[in-house]
């Protein structure tokens, strides 16, 4: 997860570590399997390595997609919008209620505002995105669902892995296997990395079975050592996979 959100929240690997490990391992798998390492494959590997944390508004993926500058801009815009609705929308008393609601949203903390934006984007994809691509209906629905989930929940399961990999396969398999293989592998690597933490993951809820190796806690020196070791191992795998290209 992103360093901001890890403060006082142990049991999850840092976002930058997920990014390096998931992307490096997935691209190495492509190379070792003889699949082309293409730009789309790299893109979905980068996204897949962070995607399970989409249920956390302050995670690296969400905070980069919806940065603080955008949140501040939204807060700045919402108050004038509330005033406009109150004075110029002729639908009393609903204009007052809507203005109050908009004003209240503007004072939400950034974490909650990101959830509101995620829900709004998902709603837009559901109602308008299907005109551009049919799978936008599914993507929008999943995005709205993610705003209601607790962190380290459904997205950190084999179900989440299957949905992400299935979406990639259904939309890209005619181009070759490298895109869905890269995205699915990166997603799985995120879950495996989180299984090293003291919180672990529940891969098949409602079953209570949990994968928890309990090697690390984020924010501790020992946790940093474990993360760095995992990064080094991923880089060694990359060297094994790609070094023949340069020899």
UniProtKB/TrEMBL annotation:
UniProt feature coiled coil, ranges: none
Keyword Transmembrane found: yes
Taxonomic source organism: Paenibacillus pabuli
Record keywords, A-Z: Membrane, Transmembrane, Transmembrane helix
Protein name: Inner membrane protein
A Pfam cross-reference name: YdjM
Domain of life assignment: Bacteria
Keyword Phosphoprotein: no
Transmembrane segments: 69-89, 96-113, 119-145, 225-246
